[in-house]
Amino acid sequence: MKNKNFDFGLVGLGVMGRNFILNVAENGYSCIGLSSSIESIKILRKEGKDFIVDGTTSEKEFINSLTRPRKIMLLVPAGKPVDSTINRFLPYLDKDDIIIDGGNSHYDDTERRYEFLKEKNINFIGAGVSGGSKGARFGPSIMPGGDKDSYEIIKPIFESVSAKINGQPCVTYLGNTSSGHYVKMIHNGIEYGIMQLISESYHILKNGLKNKNFDIYNTFKKWNDGTLNSYLIEITRDIFKVKDEKSDNYLIDLILDKAKQKGTGKWTSQSAMDFGVSIPTIDSSVSMRIISSFKETRGKAEKLYSANKMISSNSSLKTDDIEKALIFSFIITFAQGLSQLKLVSEEKSYNLNYEKICKIWRGGCIIRAKLLEDFMQAYKNNPSLESLIFDENISEIIKKTVLSIRKVSIYCIENNIPSHAILSSLSYFDSLKSSILPMNLIQAQRDYFGEHTYERIDKEGVFHTDWEKN
Predict the structure, then answer these.
(1) SS3 assignment, position 206
(2) What is the pTM of this model?
(3) Which residue ranges form the domains of the chain, and what is each CATH number?
(4) Which residues are annotated as catalytic?
(5) Helix or strand or coil: residue 146?
(6) Cα 54 from Cα 19, distance rounded (Å)
(7) Are 65 and 33 within 8 A, CB to CB?
């Protein structure tokens, strides 16, 4: 090891970690990685031969070779491995050293670690990193929260390695304690929702309109050239042209329809329940991944109920309607996620800036999309915007697309095509714009069986009725 004064240290030299440290090194910073795998260190040295980068298996050597205040980023699995790494490092750390957790940690864990390290005069930053391994190497979206002064120290590195849109880095300080990981969790929840919406649109095109994969490729290509332009539409387009090397069949048709998940979508739904926020599109996307895992059960039910029997005519629906339904649902999904951020930010005093969040989501991350420019402008016009649906420009898009999503929803219902996320998006919108909901009946029921009381519309106060006497 020639260099004993490295600018930046990274723990975890898997594909994600190795690509991130190479990105940092390529941007002019000397780096050292820590790994228990000699092979990973060899790969790092080989791929980073043109940069000032090295690796070691020794924790003490790793920490002692870093300039002060030490800047140490962890890209290890969330949970116990993060705590274990921090505890092993503590004997070697000095006051004002900075630990950055770049994994998908739960925000509660981040908050706990922030307070724990603060007592020991060690600074902690929870930073969500989005973009996958390719983004880590060539420019991710980074969502840091925690100690603000520490962020200012790490800021030049993060701004150098992040994705750029019109020269603007896709990273910004978000807020205190666990705000960075909370924003990343919501990012992932929105990602779940959009992926489910796209998959349902694919199902309509393939099983409803009987489009071939080549036709679906061209449809997504057209969509990506318009309002729906986004990373997820772009990669979906490309999926439909890939063939299996051995059979010459389209690869998409050979993939088992059981979707896995790592938990961040579930965390988003759980947190929404805890804080009293409605995010049905995201909730339904999590539910559909769970339902997909019951392959045998679905097969039995299909045989029993003849689920694929078509009822209405294919000609009743156009691909333009599906495109508009997706635009509508994309907006609603982002609106749900950002509304959750707004409420939780107020509850936890994150002081989030939603214009900045939309700004850093425009590049590098999985949910980057053309519509984020409109969302960014909406929050620029009104930083305290209650929901995206109340922005004048966004509302015009909604008005132009809402008839199409109603048409798509009816088509799916009539043709036995599962469309949980699409229907949830429309129902959420209809509920939100209804000044009268049937919850008066629920309040009466609660008072009847549990004496939970109710309020009235004609006078102030809290009331209870002996319903059985009347």
Answers:
(1) helix
(2) 0.94
(3) 8-177 (3.40.50.720), 184-432 (1.10.1040.10), 439-469 (1.20.5.320)
(4) 184, 191
(5) strand
(6) 13
(7) no
